[in-house]
Amino acid sequence: MLNFNFYSPTEFVFGRGTENEVGRLVQQYGGHKVLIVYGGGSAVRSGLIDRVKKSLEAHSIEYVEMGGVLPNPTDVKVYEGIDLCRQNGVDMLLPVGGGSAIDCAKAVAAGTIYDGDFWDFYEGKIIERALPVGVVLTIPAAGSEGSGNSVITKASIEKKISIRAPHKLRPVFAIMNPELTFSLPPYQTACGAVDMMAHIQERYFNNTPETIVTDSLSEALLRDIIALAPRVLAHPDDYDARANLMWCGTLAHNGLCGTGVEEDWASHAIEHELSAMYGVAHGAGLAVIFPAWLTWMLSHNDSKLKQWAKNVWNVDTPEEGIKRYKEFLHSIGMPTNMQELGIENPNPEQLSQRLHEHKGEQVGAYVKLQKKDTLEIYKLAVEG
To answer: Of 180, 205, 232, at which residue does a domain stop?
Structure first.
């Protein structure tokens, strides 16, 4: 087990009606004027944005709005948000939505008080300061409500980059009302479950010995997601199932499952090129990429796959574990190859080339993948 720092200061306010506490929480954490960030119109149509505004007004908190954040958020919206914050004296970001809105808000939070181009941070510059971020979560998936991570795509070159700044970008609070997820479309719900599993597995597949407790936490969460996702899809208004799945999403990505281990993250890097080029949903892309990555690992490093197969899927071999994984993905309406994902003419060579242009000669840690390796994985993803 490796040395580690575990830093998770976010205040999670969980349960029915908790969105009505947003004004109190903004005030508690020193906000006076917030930028409300959201995606499409669902948060408006459902009345959620109005409830958020009412709570802010009750605590004399001023606000500015920015809607229209895309599912794969781009730098274009970040620049818009930075301008709004500077013009209006905003001192806190308030994303209402899922990972896309939250990631966009985090980028705005860092960029608003930086003299240069916010994209510098996505090219490697260290974030020294950022405005505080508070969250009203409506889509359990990305875990961004409890992490210091942000993923943004530079639209002009289709470059999708993830950054990690746990001491600067972790939300100060996250409001989590499972009732807000009742109306999520089945496809979005399923994508979220896949994303949660991927966040756990990126940490679980490692070469670090003697990580018994961390492994057990990861395996339990994976089994819970496997049990909960079909239940939620069958009964969308099941509060307890939604609540447990929502909490899984947070625990999957707040760093707990990475304590004491060397994390991998190759599958996310491989998928980011897929969603940047073809505009597919991130969770659906992971449903295609992760089984391909696992299949490639069968002949390169299957040590942890054996444990995963036994403890998560209750089968004897990694091959059977991958089979069960794909069956589960299909059972919740997810694709497992690029054709099912809707990509008619994929270009594995271009995907692999772009990946290594953006990430360097090697990606990952479980096995350090070179271009020839990621090309094989992309080809496996085409075949399924």
So the answer is: 180
